[in-house]
């Protein structure tokens, strides 16, 4: 009965034994060694080919593991052949062979297990600890075996390893280390790859573990355990091969899918780019292009890809493209050039090629990628621009570029032939007012009419041009003296006296002309232009509608003005600027009614610099915007501080310049200053001169109305010194008129001034405006003004401009009007 039960098991073991190569030692297992060696070799070959892939670190580790496994099988096959040939006896194999075979197989198992641990877990430290620990344990077993072997060989040279405790050490050690990776992977990962790896590693574990009872029981289970162990080992190697090859196939499939996805994405992206894009290989065969390229040359993508330029372009042009491509492949870098392109329908265009070389996987030039930019419209525009390059678009005169070129040429000729050149820099007076009043179209019409009127004044050798804006330049070549330049300038001024007819209007314009002479006023075009410009501004300052020669004194003043501008910019940053306040008194109440904030500048080297010097400079340079904003905010802040200290509310008077009024952010600046300081609008008075108000009266009325709507007081400063129109004045929403000090200084003796002051007072009374008289310095002036019912005054008779602290002392004493003798204290 027992024999019949054992027969099926024996049959199964025989089948396993035949598959694995036998039940015994080396001489019986040659088939197993061969099959395992083939699989280890195949795995090594595949790992070697993938060492540069993205997961190359894992592959390099697997190369070592597969190499150790292959080495073990090759050694086993070699020993089997040596034994078969009779070179080595079977008993001699047990002298040194088992420890080496154990070490190689154990190290192969450990390295492979570590590689898959790192790959599946993604944690480097754990697999490193496992690898170092397992290999160290193998090394210890190997050294312990040879320590034992050395002792026994010394005692008995005929002894051999056999089934000793050293074999147990190897098997138990390997079993313990090989059970760790499957347990970790089962607990922390999932998926088909995990399952197959765990199965393969479990087979390796069982291959080592089942040797332990075999060693303990000797020959009893030789026929049972040996075939199973060999079968498990071979199955593990083949299963590992299947895992690795399937994983490689899966990765290749994913890579191909990702490549197709990226290729489709790339094609979609480049198709979305409106600029034509193409790429070729080293032989000039198109590898791809976008829709814009196909549309531009008039061929379908199928006709382009896989073909060369000779298939899609005329031979002559294709030769140009091909030679350029070869040069780029030789030289590398980037290639940019213009060339003509002919489409399939014969349409011609000019394009700008941008090409560069891309590298293949080996780092060698793989081909060319390029873009085409159609510059046909630009080329046509350049032709138009070249035609227009030297003429002004509005007047048809020479433009700035031609003027400078002609001036350079005339100066060179004058140096050779020793004669003079005159440069007239002309500017239309108050051209901005015409533009603002009638519009830019009328302004352009005026420029054209001025140009037509100037043309007859020039000789064939002279150059007349528009320099920009309303500025005209006349270059007088080959003149003998300044008198010739004067004659031309006077002729031009005379011509301008005739009115221009602009849209049913007659407009009279003046010309300010600055004259610079070569060689007296400069030898270079830039110098002459600068000096003529300075002379033109001198003509404007001298009254406009006149001509003025450049002088060295003018240059000296310009340098001094520039130095002052630099110092003023520094002063704004170094707190050299400060405010003083001059009281205004109401004789009716006998108290201080307000203060006027006045800006002062104490230069560290030059001392106090008069406002009459630096305020106009600030207006010309644009610094007045920053200065005005600071003055307004500082004055409002000081008035608010006095109120917070419990002093009676005073009217804070702040001067505005014409530049500030013309800027679009005046209302915003005032609102911001009041909001930040907390001053009430009714405690602020803004002062503007009547000449500033009249510059753009219509626009100014709107701005002043907005300020008045906020509750801010408005005053006309220096009244009577400028040109004003009563018809406009009655529409300005002002509260107060300040009589200029020039009319007060000679009162009451000067009858003309007295009459003017009486007229101003009467006009103000009629318009129901309040009055303030500036510059009151004597008792007689005070009595005259009080007699004529002007009761609000300011001036040195009452108090000089003083710091805020001095104002506070006056406020602390009640701010009474102390009528006294003239004092500057």
Automatic annotation (TrEMBL):
| GGDEF domain mapped to chain residues | 419-552
Q: Which InterPro entries match?
A: Biofilm_reg_signaling (IPR052155), EAL_dom (IPR001633), EAL_sf (IPR035919), GGDEF_dom (IPR000160), Nucleotide_cyclase (IPR029787), PAS (IPR000014), PAS-assoc_C (IPR000700), PAS-like_dom_sf (IPR035965)
Alphabetized, the UniProt keywords read: Membrane, Transmembrane, Transmembrane helix
What CDD domains does UniProt report for this protein, alphabetically? EAL, GGDEF, PAS
PROSITE patterns tied to this protein: EAL (PS50883), GGDEF (PS50887), PAC (PS50113), PAS (PS50112)
Q: Which Pfam families match?
A: EAL (PF00563), GGDEF (PF00990), PAS_4 (PF08448)
- Its transmembrane ranges are 30-49, 61-82, 102-121, 130-148
- Domain of life, per lineage: Bacteria
> Which residue ranges does the record assign to the EAL domain?
561-815
The segment(s) forming the PAC domain are 335-387
Is-annotated flag, keyword Cell membrane? Answer: no
* Domain PAS, residue spans: 262-344
* PANTHER family, per the entry: BIOFILM ARCHITECTURE MAINTENANCE PROTEIN MBAA, DIGUANYLATE CYCLASE DGCP
Designated name of the protein: Diguanylate cyclase/phosphodiesterase with PAS/PAC sensor(S)
Source organism per entry reads Desulfuromonas versatilis
